[in-house]
Design brief:
248 residues; alpha+beta; 9 helices; 37% helix; 11% strand; elongated
């Protein structure tokens, strides 16, 4: 198939940026979206032009690096699918595809489609860990965890930190990401000792990074490649409220 690409090009954070048009020829239906961009870049390099800068790493839907807004929707709009898992069979011959970076104050553009998402790293550093000295390693069955709780914690831990929730939110809120990172530890007995401190510290860091407020429209859940539930935001709000009342 042949496609027309309108790609956001921006030399650096101070450059104004603009959409530029490229032709993607003889695209195979079984290519991933990133493989298609690889082919386009090979053509640009062969012609002596600057290739399109974009993030990628594992290309298996695990690392969260593939941060692209495709036709206005982060990751392209296929349920439970990251950009690297999006295949070209979902597009039509002759279609025009617009490709942009994440749009958020807290995710400044580095170049073209690459944004700096280190704000997420700082939020995790604020409390996304267990630091209590518990002595030696206990036997696996010495901490009984109900399966329903363990499953819910695993659901939260599935978050890959891609930032699609921020990119789609009209307020650029990071609540779904932070809620997932808070909840997957707060649900488990290993995280109980630091539950209050964790909720307060991570929410505080989120606010300091300049993310917006959540209005619970559900757009974040809709585009999340791991389908993280909005219910984790409710849990985080409960944990945060309880910690605030305790004066932790």
């Amino acid at each position: 198939m042949n496609l027309t690409l309108k790609v956001w090009r921006q030399k650096n954070g101070s450059d104004k940026g603009r959409l530029e048009t490229y032709e993607a020829r003889d695209v195979l239906e079984d290519m991933s979206f990133l493989e298609m961009l690889d082919v386009v870049n090979e053509g640009l390099i062969a012609r002596g032009q600057d290739p399109i800068a974009f993030d990628s790493d594992c290309r298996e839907g695990i690392c969260g690096m593939c941060s692209l807004v495709i036709n206005g929707i982060p990751h392209g709009g296929q349920a439970g699918t990251a950009t690297c898992q999006l295949h070209m069979r979902h597009f039509k011959d002759g279609q025009t595809i617009t490709i942009e970076p994440w749009r958020a104050k807290a995710f400044p553009i580095v170049k073209d489609l690459v944004t700096n998402r280190s704000a997420f790293d700082r939020i995790v550093q604020a409390g996304g860990f267990v630091s209590v000295n518990t002595g030696g390693t206990p036997d696996a069955n010495s901490l009984p965890v109900p399966k329903t709780v363990a499953d819910k914690s695993m659901d939260a831990a599935a978050c890959i930190g891609c930032g699609a929730c921020v990119a789609v939110c009209k307020n650029a809120s990071a609540m779904l990401f932070v809620a997932a990172k808070v909840s997957h530890l707060n649900l488990l007995p290993q995280g109980e000792a630091e539950k209050d401190r964790r909720a307060l510290a991570m929410v505080r860091q989120m606010d300091d990074e300049g993310f917006g407020n959540c209005t619970v429209t559900g757009s974040c859940e809709a585009v999340c490649p791991k389908e993280i539930s909005l219910s984790f935001i409710a849990k985080m709000n409960r944990d945060y409220g309880a910690a605030t009342l305790k004066g932790s």
